[in-house]
Structure formats: structure tokens, C-alpha cells
């Protein structure tokens, strides 16, 4: 145990501690004047304590155990996603929460790590062979599409898209053929262009259809992004006020707990999805840049760990986690500056949310497990080589 603790990347651990401090401070600023959310700061502290416990437990457990049982973990994750559709609670138009012993669990968040583990397990068995489309790529797409469809049915677009990002990142480093990569990229670009043009051209028909299937709130998320001039006041309220708040922050911000828009509740969900707005308005461009620098440093540490791995499963897991984090950071910040559609995606390690935070901390623990147990393997190899050399002499 002591030997394993010594192998933890304490630089990465320090980054997580700093992010905890930032998260708690910003959540307090966003909620201290709102009685409804008055206990959010205390709850976030509890979530972080639980998150660090999970971090250390995951670090000490050999990550190969999770790979060994990844198929069963994947199956259990699908059962939870199906269970949500039957008895799940609805929040912000998404039916994605299970209530267990008074605690809310969001299986769609947990499934990100589940998917990374299962895809990494399958890809690691291919060694360094090129992936064949029907034998290798198609099954991986099917494995990803099943949870994607289930989460889309729960009205959780943000988490559903993260599964596709994870899959694409792992296929890329999994030695997919360049011709296939170019084909998929071209197809994705064409689908996005055609989808946007079709949305604009058939806007009224799409609006009627979505209303019929009770998904009309999707229009409120897409209209401010694609058709801001025609969006309703209700649809544009969130993103417009978020942009105004970010702009008012200027270079150094309006001051801690002095953000005009944040403190007057003109921006919804400032303690969770919109927490970047609090950082930008109260700490300005400098504060936002420092937060992005923290993320850059975190991802840099993760990539360094992946480069130290002697086997392929470790890098697959880490790159899957990096892709997940990059997507969430880009989407969360992008939707408030107008370059991405509004989705219910949290800002990793900063936004309020127990399931999201604990899942991210578990992923960090998984990375530490890869580092610790790969270093143990390296030490064993070094000892064996030294012993053989001594015997030969």
C-alpha cells in the first residue's frame, strides 16, 4: 500500500485539490444569496470527499481487474440505463436520474467510464493490427450506438454525444485505416452540413414534429445557435444573458460575489451547467484563462502517464478519458459563447453534481492505477534482468 501511494502522481493530485477549491468558491458565490440552493456548497464538499475516497480506492486496485470484467460492467451499465427509462426521475426535461436511498444517481454519466473500459478492452486485444471495417469497426460502433440511443431517448443529448466522441477517439488511436478515417470524417461533415441546412429550410415542419413527440424543447436549444434572429425570447434568454455576463467580466472581472448578472439570477443554473459564466463575470478573462490552464495541465499530466505505459490497454483508457474531458470542456464553454448548441453538460470538476464529480474522480483514480501498476511491472522487469545478469556472472 505504501509503495503504491509513493507512485501516485502528486502533481495531478494537487491539480484536483486546486479545482476543488475553485469549484467550492464559485458554487458558493453562485448560490449564497438563493435560499433554495443554500446548502449546495456543503453538499459539494461532501461530494469531493467521496470523490477523493473513490480516487484512492481506484488507484490502489489494479486496473486490469476492471478490464477483465468489462463485459459484465457494460451489461450492468445498460441495465441501469434501461431502469432509468422505467422508474427514472425527470430533471430539466431529461429523464436520467435514479433515486437510491435518498441519493440521486445519473447512470448516463457513469456509463462514460463503462464505455471507455469496454472499448479499451476490445481494442487492446487487436495488438497493432489494422482494424477491419466489418470485423472490428462495426461491432465497436454497435456497442456505442446502444447506450447512445438509450440516453437520447432520455432527452440527454450532451451525454449521448460524449459516447460518440469517446468512440471516435479510441478508433483513431486503435489503428483504424486512414481510408476509413477519411470516409467517416467526410461522412460526419456532410451529415452536419446537411442537417443544419435541413433544419433551417424545414424549421416549421421540424418544430411541429418535435412538438408531437414532446421534444419541442430541443428547438429552444438549437434555435439560439442556428437561427438566433428567429429564436423566441424564452429560447434565447439563457445564452443571451450568459454572453452579456461573460462580456461584462472584461479583463479582470467584476469581483468575487459581485457579478451583476450572476448575483441577480439573470443566468439560469449558475451553480451547475452555467458555472463558467460565474468564473468569467467575476474573475474576467484572466480567471477564465487560469481555469483553462488548469485543464491544460491536467490533460498534459494524463497524456504523460499514457506515454509511460508498456501495454496498449492503458493508453486506450487514458485517451478515452482525455477525449471525454476535452468534449465536455469545449461543449460547456462553447455553448455560452455561441459556437455550440445549448446542452445539459457539466464543466468537469467545477460544476455542482455528485454523479459527475465522483465519475470524473474515478477516472482520475483509474489513470493513477495505470501509472502505479505499470511502474510496478517495470520494477519487476528491472529486478529480473538484474538477477539474471548476476547469475550469468
TrEMBL record:
Keywords: Cell shape, Membrane, Transmembrane, Transmembrane helix. One of its GO terms (cellular component) is cell division site. InterPro entries: FtsW/RodA. The chain crosses the membrane at residues 12-30, 45-64, 71-91, 97-120, 132-151, 157-174, 181-200, 283-304, 316-339, 345-367. Its main location: membrane. The keyword DNA damage does not apply. This is Putative lipid II flippase FtsW. It comes from Paenibacillus nuruki.
Amino acid at each position: 500500500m505504501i509503495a503504491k501511494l509513493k507512485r501516485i502522481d502528486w502533481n495531478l493530485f494537487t491539480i484536483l485539490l486546486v479545482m476543488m477549491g475553485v469549484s467550492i468558491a464559485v458554487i458558493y458565490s453562485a448560490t449564497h444569496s438563493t435560499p433554495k440552493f443554500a446548502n449546495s456548497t456543503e453538499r459539494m464538499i461532501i461530494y469531493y470527499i467521496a470523490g477523493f475516497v473513490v480516487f484512492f480506492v481506484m488507484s490502489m486496485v489494479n486496473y486490469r481487474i476492471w478490464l477483465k470484467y468489462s463485459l459484465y460492467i457494460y451489461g450492468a451499465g445498460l441495465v441501469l440505463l434501461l431502469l432509468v427509462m422505467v422508474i427514472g426521475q425527470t430533471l430539466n426535461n431529461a429523464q436520467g436520474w435514479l433515486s437510491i436511498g435518498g441519493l440521486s444517481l445519473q447512470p448516463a454519466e457513469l456509463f462514460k467510464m463503462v464505455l471507455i473500459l469496454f472499448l479499451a478492452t476490445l481494442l487492446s486485444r487487436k495488438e497493432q493490427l489494422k482494424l477491419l471495417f466489418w470485423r472490428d469497426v462495426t461491432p465497436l460502433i454497435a456497442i456505442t450506438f446502444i447506450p447512445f440511443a438509450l440516453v437520447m431517448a432520455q432527452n440527454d443529448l450532451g451525454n449521448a454525444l460524449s459516447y460518440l466522441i469517446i468512440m471516435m477517439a479510441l478508433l483513431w488511436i486503435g489503428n483504424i485505416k486512414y481510408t476509413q478515417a477519411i470516409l467517416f470524417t467526410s461522412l460526419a461533415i456532410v451529415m452536419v452540413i446537411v442537417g443544419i441546412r435541413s433544419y433551417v429550410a424545414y424549421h416549421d415542419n421540424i418544430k411541429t414534429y418535435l412538438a408531437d413527440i414532446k421534444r419541442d424543447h430541443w428547438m429552444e436549444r438549437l434555435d439560439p445557435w442556428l437561427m438566433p434572429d428567429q429564436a423566441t425570447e424564452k429560447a434565447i434568454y439563457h445564452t443571451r444573458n450568459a454572453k452579456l455576463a461573460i462580456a461584462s467580466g472584461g479583463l479582470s472581472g467584476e469581483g468575487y460575489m459581485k457579478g451583476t448578472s450572476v448575483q441577480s439570477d439573470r443566468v439560469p443554473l449558475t451553480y451547475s451547467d452555467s458555472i463558467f459564466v460565474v468564473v468569467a463575470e467575476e474573475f474576467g478573462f484572466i480567471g477564465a484563462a487560469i481555469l483553462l490552464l488548469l485543464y491544460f495541465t491536467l490533460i498534459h499530466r494524463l497524456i504523460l502517464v499514457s506515454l509511460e505505459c508498456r501495454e496498449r490497454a492503458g493508453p486506450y483508457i487514458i485517451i478515452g478519458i482525455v477525449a471525454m474531458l476535452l468534449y465536455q470542456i469545449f461543449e460547456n464553454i462553447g455553448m455560452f459563447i455561441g459556437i455550440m448548441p445549448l446542452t445539459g453538460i457539466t464543466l468537469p470538476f467545477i460544476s455542482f453534481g455528485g454523479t459527475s464529480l465522483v465519475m470524473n474522480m474515478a477516472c482520475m483514480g483509474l489513470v493513477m492505477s495505470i501509472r502505479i501498476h505499470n511502474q510496478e511491472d517495470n520494477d519487476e522487469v528491472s529486478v529480473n534482468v538484474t538477477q539474471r545478469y548476476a547469475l550469468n556472472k
